[in-house]
Amino acid sequence: MAADYSARHRGVSFLAIQNGRTLLEQNEKTAHKIYSGTKAFWDLAALAAAEDGFLRLDERVADTITSWRSDPRKAQVTIRQLLDFDSGLEPQFFLHETQSGDRDTTAMRARMVAELGSAFIYGPAALQVFHQVFKEKLRGDSPTHYLERRVLHRLGLGSQRYLADHAGNPLLASGWILTARQWAKLGRVILANGAPVISKSSLAQCWRGTAANRAFSFGWWNNRAAPNGREFDFEQMLIPKWQNQDWHDACLCRDAPDDLVACIGSEGQRLYVIPSLELIVVRHADGGSFSDAHFLRLLLGRERR
Fold first, then answer.
1. Rounded distance, CA 156 to CA 251, Å?
2. Cα–Cα distance between 174 and 33 in angstroms, integer?
3. Which of 139, 157, 162, 224 is the most exposed place for a label (fewest CB within 10 A)?
4. What are phi and psi of 207, to 5 degrees?
5. pLDDT tens digit sequence for 193-228
6. How many other β-carbons are positioned within 10 Å of the β-carbon of residue 269?
């Protein structure tokens, strides 16, 4: 029923795996853009780098980006706040575009538009600042090479579509193209408590949330406000300007387990993982209307009459 609902709403591929067994697969080998699903892979690299001692998540960005020391607000921003999108930095959505400039330099010049930790501001600028920090922390190794060696190789994945600018900086917020089977490999990391990439305690960073948005950390959305949270479409909430978004008590589906987590990409791309059910579900789509809550109720047999 969930697969049929997905297909009726411009779904392209569907894959459900439980306890390592494939329940249903449709076009699972068709590669498709995952848009913001890209973020979680880079966040996984950040967590790995913290484990490896290259950086500390709660260190100040200005310790590495010296130009930020002269701005009283930028001087206080931490790496964690860049990755959680609560640094107060403007989003700079134009950085998604293929351009001739230097994304990292442009992002480092972005304005602070909110007080530290007070607002969830989802956009590429914060991640490009992190990329610049990452470059300097690795001291000669490139973030892309580190990602491939430390994360992707362990997942059985190779080089990706990085959408690099003319300075060679990849776009961290979007751009990858994966099959459902390939994206599901990230889901297996969640079910394995981080293995074979990071430890269970490092993975737990992804479920912390922030005061600005308890439903998001490190590229992952969570359902921990269920069953009593405010159920609404997360992808639709990201469309208005950040000042008009309300993430208070947000949950994807009140009738889904509270340990449900998801990677959400534009135009209906989804990777859902429910550890308590040992379940991984991947959906690709070409836009169209789509309700996470309704889909999840159908998936779990909890649709309301």
1. 32
2. 9
3. 139
4. -110, 5
5. 999 999 999 999 999 999 999 999 999 999 999 999
6. 25
Q: What is the 3-state secondary structure (H, E, C) of 167-198?
A: CCCCCCCCCCEECHHHHHHHHHHHHCCCCCCC
Nearest C-alpha neighbor of 253 from the set 225, 281, 219: 225
89-122: pLDDT as tens digits = 999 999 998 776 899 999 999 999 999 999 999 9
Half-sphere exposure (Cβ direction) of 16: Cα atoms closer than 13 Å = 14
Please tell me whether the overall predicted TM-score, pTM, comes out greater than 0.70 for this model: yes
φ/ψ of 75, rounded to 5, equals -65, -20
Return the structure tokens found at 79. 């790496």
In contact, 230 and 250? CB cutoff 8 Å: yes
DSSP strands (E only) in 85-173:
none
